[in-house]
Amino acid sequence: MAHQASVPDAKIALSTASVYPENTAAAFEIAGRLGYDGVEVMVWTDPVSQDVDALGELSARHGVPVLAVHAPCLLVTQRVWGTDPWAKLLRSRDAAQRLGASTVVVHPPFRWQRAYARDFVRGIRRLDGETDITFAVENMYPWRYRDREVLAYAPGWDPTENEFPHFTLDVSHTATSRSDALAMADRMGERLAHVHIADGSGSGKDEHLVPGRGSQPCAALLERLAATGYGGHVVVEVNTRRAASPEARRADLAEALAFTRLHLATAPPAVNRGGEPGPR
Fold first, then answer.
1. Which residues contact 253 (CB under 8 A, 6 or more apart)?
2. What is residue 277's predicted lDDT score, i.e. its pLDDT?
3. For residues 123 and 135, is the Cβ–Cβ distance under 8 A?
4. pTM listed for this prediction
5. Contact in structure between 115 and 83 (CB atoms under 8 Å)
6. Tens-place pLDDT, residues 210-246
7. What is the DSSP string of 112-159?
8. Tens of pLDDT along 56-104?
9. Phi-psi map region of 209: left, alpha, beta (phi>0 left; psi -120 to 50 alpha)
10. How far apart are the C-alpha atoms of 253 and 247, rounded to whole Å?
C-alpha cells in the first residue's frame, strides 16, 4: 500500500540577501513570483531594508509575508540602525512585531565587542522571554587566513556551547566551520527554531551555494526536519551574485525552492503486517 508524503508546517522563505546585487524590493517580487511562502528581511545597507513602512508596503503589494528579520550583525552593517548592538536588537524586534514576523536572527558578537559579548547570553535570554518574538542565535565559523585560524566571535562561533533559548542552523556555515550539520542539529534539539538552507564545499569560504551543489547533507537535514515535525521556518539563503543574468538568478532561486520543498516532505514509515512501523 502506498503512503502519502507528510509535509511539516514549516514555511519556506527567501532571504532578501539571496538576490544581491538586486535589492530588497526585487526580493519580494521574486519570492512572490516563484511561490515562496515569505521572506526573511536582511537588514543591511539598502535603505528599504531598514524602512519598516516600506517593507510593509512591499509585503502587501506582492502578497509575500515577512516571516523573519535578520538583525544588522555583519561587518558592513556596523552603523545600520546606530552602533549600539542592543539597540539594534530592540529595533529588529520592533520591526518583526510591526511586520508580523515571528523570528529575529542574530549572530554572536565579534570578539572586539567586549561589553556586548560579556552580556550576550544573559541578554538574549532576557529578550527572548519578554515577547513572543523568538531570538534565534546563528552558528558561525572560525575565520581562516592561510594556515591560521582566527576566532572572531565571542562567546564563540558555535552557539550550542551556550544556553540560548533558540538557535538558527546555517548549513553554509557548517561547511565553512567544517562541522557536522546533522550533529549540530541534534545538539540544538528542540531549540532549533530557524534554518538557513544553503550548501558549501568545506573550502573555508562562506559559499552559500544552491542546496545540492556542495558537500553538505542538505537533503538529509530537510528530511530529518520533516520526519520530526519541525515547525520553524526554512530560509533559502544563497549567493547568486555571480549569476550570469537576472533570469539565471531566478532560475537558481527556483531550483533552491524546488529542492527544499522536495526534501522537506517525507513518507511516513511503512507499517508491517503486525501494525508496527517497519523498514522502508
1. 14, 18, 19, 30, 34, 236, 238, 240
2. 38
3. no
4. 0.92
5. no
6. 999 999 999 999 999 999 999 999 999 999 999 999 9
7. T-HHHHHTHHHHHHHHHHHSS-EEEEEP---EEETTEEE--BSS-S-G
8. 999 999 999 999 999 999 999 989 999 999 999 999 999 999 999 999 9
9. beta
10. 10
Cα–Cα distance, 80 to 89 (Å, whole number): 11
Give the closest residue to 26 by CA, choosing from 45, 7, 39.
Answer: 39
Decide: 108 and 85 in contact? Cβ < 8 Å.
no
Task: Please give the C-alpha separations between residue 11 and each of 35, 119, 233, 264, in angstroms, as whole numbers.
Answer: 11, 32, 5, 10
The span from the CA of 4 to the CA of 47, in Å, is: 45
**Residue range 117-131, pLDDT digits in tens:** 999 999 999 999 999
Q: What are 271's three cell numbers? A: 507499517
Q: Dihedrals φ, ψ of 89, to 5°?
A: -70, -40
Backbone torsions φ then ψ of 135, nearest 5 degrees: -100, 110
Which cell numbers hold the place of 19? Answer: 538576490
Distance CA 55, CA 28 (A): 9
Q: What distances in angstroms separate CA 203 from CA 142, 143, 208, 240, one per listed residue?
A: 12, 12, 12, 18
